[in-house]
Each structure stands twice: as structure tokens, then as C-alpha cells.
Amino acid sequence: MRPRPTAGPPGLADVAELVRAPAALSVVGDTLAGLAAARTGGGAGAPTPLRARHLLLPVASACLYLGGMALNDYADRHVDAVERPERPIPSGRVSPRAALAIGGALTAGGVAAAGLAGGRRALGVALPLAACVWTYDLVAKDRPAGPFVMAACRGLDVLLGATPGRLRSALPAAAGLTAHTLGVTVLSRGEVHGTTPQVAGAVAAGTVAGAVAAAAAPAAATARRPAARWTTVAAATAYAAAALPGQVRAAARPTAANARTATRAGIQAMVPLQAAWAARSGSLGTVALLAGVAAVGQGLRLLGRARGRAGVSIT
Fold first, then answer.
1. Distances in whole angstroms, Cα of residue 243 to Cα of each of 25, 29, 205, 238, 272
2. Residue of 80, 99, 165, 185 with fewest CB within 10 Å of its CB?
3. CA-CA distance, 239 to 236, in Å (whole number)?
4. What tens digit of pLDDT does each residue of 5-57 get?
5. What is the Cα–Cα distance from 210 to 262, expressed in whole angstroms?
6. pTM for this structure?
């Protein structure tokens, strides 16, 4: 079964569904956490001066992510025609050519925003990030290397946020988000046919390790600030509370439904994990901003449920 032909350009609502627009809330915190880490000056130096143009870094991150979502549906259009015919491409609301063009335009916009925000230094991270996004969606997604490519996208996204300062200072945060993304992506491969107790159990163990890593051994920016220290612990605990229960259930009963639930919970847990690493860098303002992002995301999820929309995988 092939996608039905479309008539005319897609509507704004159809494009928003194609790119999973609300899901971008889970990715802007990557660059914010990286930016918070860069401000610590590696834990010993002076904070990195922030300028208004640096606010384009989360915009770049969101554009690259949304472009990847369009590419994801372009690559999956024939499978979706059988398994998810209601999606924008197989339903005929968005043509494959339009989806590819949207993905390309958003990618170009993301790279351009990164260049405006941080010049050649930011482009040096944004271009490999864009290459990873395209590689994952068009080549690697269904291959053994797929989860590692997706995880690399998250790690590079954190480092993109750190380009105004020292990239080295953001490596722990980048590693934390990379490891979590790897686990979520591996688990998501069981969304149709189910996972295994070993896979779900390993992902759950990784979540515990990730929470401990974020909360333990605080950076110099938090060691002398009790408020930042306790906020780090609270955010790391919230991360584990969001991701771990679904993963434990999937380990006990590795059905497709439990894998889907655990995957969605793992994606939503990105925000408290980002907040934990931002707090670890001493940036409570970033934590407050991410709390607002989490609240908006929860509101959108409740609205979607009220309208009877089922959640979809965004990995």
C-alpha cells in the first residue's frame, strides 16, 4: 500500500503533526544544559559571558529535531501506509516530496541559527549534528548502529549549547543525555513486537546509574551552594521517578504495550535529566525555565488525551 497522492500544499496543522511539534519541548533543554555547563568555565574559571544571540541555540536545536521528525516520516512512509495510515503522508495530507522539503528547510534553518548564535565554532558542532540526524532517519534507524547514531545526536546537541564557552565543561552532561537516549532508543525497538527482560532491565539499570551520576560529585559551581546542590538531587530523583517505573514494568512483562509506555516515559524524562545537569552546573534559572517547559509539555499531553489523540513514538 502506497501513500495516497495529495492535492495542494499541506496545511499548518498537518505540518505540525508531521514534525511532532510539541515534542520539540524535550530537546531544547539539551542546549540549555550545555549552555549552563559552559557558564561554569569548566568549574574553576569565570562564567562565560552570555549574549542575546546565544538564545538562538535552542532554536537551532528545535529546528534540527523537527526536521528530523519530518525525515523520519518520509523514510517510514511505506511502512506507515500499512501500520499507521492515519499519519500525514500515508493519509495524503502531506506529500513525500513536501515532507522531504520540510525536513531539508528545517535542517538548513537549524544550521543557520547555530551559525548566527556562535559562528564557526557552533557550525563545527551543528553540521555533524545535522549529518547524524539525516544518517539516522534515512540510513541507520533500522540497523544495529541506529541507537548509537540517535544517542550521538543528543550528545552533540548538548555540546552545541556549550559552544559559547568550554566544550569540555559540558562533556559530563552530554554523556548523561547520550546514555539515556541510547537506552530509550534500544527500548523503543520493542514497541511493535515487544522487548526482552534483559533489554528493559539493562535500560532500567542505566537510568539508575544516570540519576546517580547527575546527582553525585557536584561541580564546583554547586558544591558551595546548598540550593543548587539540593535542586540537583531533586531533579535527578524526578528523572528516575519519571523513567524507571515504566522500564521496570517492561522488564517484568516485556510486551509491546509496556515497551511503548516505557519509551514515552523515557522521552518525557529527558527534561528532568536536563534540569539535573543544569542544576549541577549551578544554573537555577535554567532549571526554572525547564520546569516551565515540563509544565507546558504536560498540558499539551493532557490536551491531546482529551482530544483522543494517541501518543506516537518520536524516536
1. 17, 17, 11, 9, 10
2. 80
3. 5
4. 555 688 889 999 999 988 888 899 999 999 988 866 544 555 566 788 888 99
5. 16
6. 0.89
